[in-house]
Amino acid sequence: MKVFYLLKQGLLVLLVFSALIVKAQTGSISGKVLDETGLPLPGASVVVKGTTRSTSTDGEGNFKIAGLPNGSVTLSASFIGYQTLDKAVSLNGNTTLNFQLVPDAQKLNEVVVIGYGTAEKKNLTGSITTVSSKDFQKGTITTPEQLIQGKVAGVNIISGGGAPGAGGQIRIRGGASLNASNDPLIVVDGVPFSGNSIGNAPSPLSLINPNDIETFTVLKDANATAIYGSRASNGVILITTKKGASGAPVINFSTNNSIATVAKKVDVFSADEVRAYVNANGTAAQRALLGTAHTDWQDEIYQNAFSTDNTLSIAGSFKGVPYRVSAGYLDQDGVLITAKLKRATGGLTLSPRLFKDHLKIDLSLKGTLSNSQYPDDAAIQNAIQFDPTQPVYADNKFGGYFEWISGTGAAGVPNPNAPRNPVALIRQQNNVGNAERSFGNARFDYSFHFLPELHANLNLGYDISKGYGSKSIPVYAAQRASTNGYYERRLNNGSDKFSEFYLNYAKTVESIKSRFDVTAGYGYYDNSTTDFYFNTYRGTGEILTTPVFPNAVERQKLLSYYGRFVYTLADKYILSGTMRADASSRFSEQNRWGYFPSAGFTWRIIGENFLKDSKVVSDLKLRLSYGETGNKDGSTIGNYNYISRYYANTNQGQYQVGNSFYNYYSPAGYDPDMKWETTTTYNAGLDYGFLKGRLYGSLDVYYKKTKDLLSTINIPVGTNFSNLLTTNVGNMEVKGAEASLNFVAIQKDEVTWEFGVNAAYNKRKITNLTLNPDPGSKVGAGDITGGTGNTLKWNAVNQIPSAFFVYKQVYNANGVPLEGIYEDLNGDGVINTNDQYFYKSPDPNFTFGFNTSFTYKKWTATTVLRASIGNYVYDNISSNFGIRNNILSTQGILNNAGVDLYNTNFSGSSGTQYLSDYFIKNASFLKMDNVGLSYNVGKLSKNSNTSMRISANVQNVFIVSDYKGLDPELSSGIDFNLYPRPRTYTLGLNVGF
Questions:
Q1: Lower Cβ count inside 10 Å, N or C end of the chain?
Q2: Residue 23 and residue 277: Cα distance in Å, rounded?
Q3: What are phi and psi of 17, to 5 degrees?
Q4: What residues does 724 pair with on adjacent strands?
Q5: pLDDT at 213 over 70
């Protein structure tokens, strides 16, 4: 027993001695990662080169890696937007090592997100631009697309107006379709958005908190987008949200509080001007209608609007699992009275790493609840034309609001030909909408143990939504006097589910200076929407209408196979190719599959011997690409347009058979041969950098041709069940060029000045619009308000889409337009539609963006400007309201008029003024979108972990334009009833713990 005791004691001593030896042979490295000003960089990555050991810095920039063998090791520190820094150190026990990173202006080694993977920026073969949170627009930002407005060459974003949460029109290189969608595909953390609208929400993107977004990556040419196939004809926007990092928890709170004001009102007659005009030109009966008030109806419906936007986030790691949790709350009033958006958002991301980092899991979940109050937008146009000599309120049975009445006493009813009181339109209507949305996914990236270069990736996700709301109008409201009030209920659901799986193999073979990167995958997408229909009611409770069906389900599916091959030789020559095959349920079986290839070549000229040691040129890269993409989406491209289908009539139009009433069914037009719309794109680009990356940018030229356009065209009567049919007919081409220039003018310890400029030229042209060549064919693309059947915009061969088709105005010797007098362009002695001609369009020829940031010590000043040249607008306000007959109405009322009446003196009696080219106005503009000043307080005390940043911003600062209307920036090209974009003053506070 004593022997065993001695053996046990000896073994214990041996184990302790061995542990001490091992401990003596290992050590740890700790330190800080700082930026160029000495401030900590939380979330920076620190890697022990040649091993799998890594960590991330905490909120104070601290890191520690323990259990490293003593000896010489090299650590690499990196952070987005900064140059990676390597440091070698001789490790002996506990060692301290600090890093100070400097900005990487050109970011050539930055890893950017591409379709189904990532790539280093220097190795890209497609036209791709990334914008990080550092460069986002600042201020009161309620929808994500506003963050990059004016930041990317060839990307034009036009907000839908100033309503809270209003969505914007996004166009990448102008769009390539007519009736199909021109919207880009948007993918958030690997979740592709279907593009379907979400009922009872201001816009689908308004249900995303912009404060959660880290980067935007815009894929512009077909080589970059073709791997997304049928959904990428109009470009792709990849949005990456903020994630957690290893280290102690970092808490961040940001708040932006703002006041929005109406920057400009429509210029109309004042009350005194109306009285003077009526007294000078009206009849005795019209003069008798004049009131004594001085009402500015636009002032009555607009207000100064307060908004508060708050986000709280916590990021860090728990037991080695990085996480980020965020919550946001937005309460935004609109400048139109009663308008409001309340939005609560939440987000959760988890990034566990298992099996010694062989399995990487990224879990993402986002959720939003929104509540909106929608005032009647018709109040905007009514405020322009309502008689300013009348008061807002009156003693009557219509809720105490002044209205034009036909008849007297109890028999008096609202004049059906008069505009309704603008204030009453808003105050006497309660239109609310609620939306709930949740989207998320789980991504698994497994690196095989026996072949670590081979990765298996699985992406499972969803996007579900529910919208519900109601509109009620009381029985005494003049706006619904004919039905004694009104009530409706709304409900709709959306459900998108998808699964994607792909394999990726990446291998560098040093012996032949080659790298191979191969991807092959599969995708399945199931998108559906359900609209529910309910009875509508009079204000007294009686049923007004009853739906034929309780609901309608729209559903489409997409099955995809895709692959990509990238070969890199000597880190200088890069060849890539992709192929995607899509099958859509929107087409018949014989036309269901579409095939979309692409190819690209990149020559990194900077890697050649004659340049690689250059002290002037820091980057030079030539890109050439070709690719095809498809399109199947759009509001006029139904899910079942390829099959015979029938529609039931309304219950109000039933047929009586005996004592019973029946709905009848009507056939709808259809095309069984409908197939994919296809766009082919050629792109040539040059990326450049000088002065160690302080001056850098890119040049691109491109040509796109779309064939088999999904177009709605006129067809001969009797050839189908409709005189309009959506089918594949026609071609369109797009030519353009883009340029961007970024310059770090000053880069010192206490002073930094950066600026960026981008410019784009884009021209679209329809080259065919019929099954058989017909140079004179055209299809209506947009009507105007006023008159009957006044189609202003047309799609026609050899014209820009939606070009204006008008008469050429004749002027007198003083330059005053002569009403109803137009040039006889065809010389036949008769003025008719044969004398109309195509004149201008809403498309700009050139767009520009400019941004600059100047930092001195802890102060930073920024600004963003945009310009558009060659875009034209039809002034529908002047053509409809700027006429004598609008003031001197024959309907027993008086109205107001736009001040353009002083220029034309048009009576409007014949209604011929609507299609005069006089109303086509040059709407080129220069806008200052944003100007801001911020102060980085830094740590509140030496021993405190709390840091603070204060900011002030003004948005929509000024507009320089010859256009005299409300706003020259209109996506439709028709100025009428635009909710004014406000000028917004914002104070912000950001606190980190």
A1: N
A2: 97
A3: -65, -40
A4: 714
A5: yes
Q: Which of 711, 642, 707, 714 is nearest to 679 (CA)?
A: 707
**CA separation for the pair 940, 947 (Å, rounded):** 6
**Angstrom distance (rounded) from CA 809 to CA 501:** 61
CA gap 685, 219 in Å, rounded: 14
User: From residue 690, how far is each of 606, 611, 615 by CA, in Å?
Assistant: 11, 12, 8
CA nearest 723: which of 707, 712, 731?
712
Residue-level pLDDT at 15: 34
Nearest to 222 by CA among 212, 209, 213, 232: 232
CA 731/CA 798 separation, integer angstroms:
10
Higher pLDDT, 662 or 434: 434
Q: Tell me the β-bridge partners of 446.
A: 359, 456
For strands 543-545 and 536-537, give the pairing: antiparallel
Lowest-pLDDT range, 79-88, 381-390, 400-409? 79-88
Structure-token pair, residue 519? 């991807």
* Least confident segment among 646-660, 748-762, 900-914, 962-976: 646-660
| Cα dist from 268 to 60, 215, 278, 506, 644, whole Å | 58, 44, 15, 66, 52
Rounded CA gap, 586 and 828, in Å? 48
| Predicted pLDDT of residue 106 | 55
CB neighbours of residue 704 within 10 Å: 24
Residue 24 vs residue 337, higher pLDDT: 337
**Distance, CA of 524 to CA of 236 (rounded, Å):** 18
CB 977 within 8 A of CB 966: no
- What does 9-42 look like in DSSP terms, one character per residue? HHHHHHHHHHHHHHHHHEEEEEEEEE-TTS-B-T
State pLDDT tens for residues 405-461. 998 877 789 999 999 999 999 999 999 999 999 999 999 999 999 999 999 999 999
Long-range contacts formed by 413-419: CB under 8 A, 24+ apart:
413/481, 414/478, 414/479, 414/481, 415/891, 415/892, 415/893, 417/889, 417/891, 417/893, 418/891, 418/893, 419/381, 419/382, 419/385, 419/386, 419/895
Confidence of residue 635 (pLDDT cuts 50, 70, 90): confident
Contacts 24+ apart (CB under 8 A), 790-794: 790/914, 790/915, 792/874, 792/914, 792/915, 792/974, 793/841, 793/842, 793/973, 793/974, 794/838
Residues with Cβ within 8 Å of 924's Cβ and at least 6 positions away in sequence, in order, are 844, 867, 868, 869, 870, 871, 961, 962, 963, 968
Q: Token pair of 933, please?
A: 């000043």
Greatest mean pLDDT range, 37-51, 151-165, 466-480:
466-480
Residue with tokens 């990167």: 517
Contact 107, 121 (CB under 8 A): yes
Give the range among 96-100, 368-372, 875-879 with minimum mean pLDDT.
96-100
Rounded distance, CA 975 to CA 978, Å? 7
| Segment (H or E) for 276 | helix 271-281
Query: Quick one: pLDDT band at residue 2, thresholds 50, 70, 90?
Result: very low
Q: What is the CA radius of gyration of the chain?
A: 32
Q: Enumerate the β-bridge partners of residue 624.
A: 601, 684
Pairwise CA distance, residues 738 & 741, whole Å: 10
Q: Distance (Å, rounded) from C-alpha 671 to C-alpha 660?
A: 35
Beta bridge partners of 91: 71
* Backbone φ and ψ of 494, nearest 5°: -130, 140
Mean pLDDT estimate for the chain: 90
pLDDT of 654 strictly over 90: no
How far is residue 336's CA from residue 209's CA, in Å, rounded to a whole number? 23
- Strands 26-34, 94-96: parallel, antiparallel or unpaired by DSSP? parallel
Q: Please report the pLDDT score of residue 559 as a whole number.
A: 96
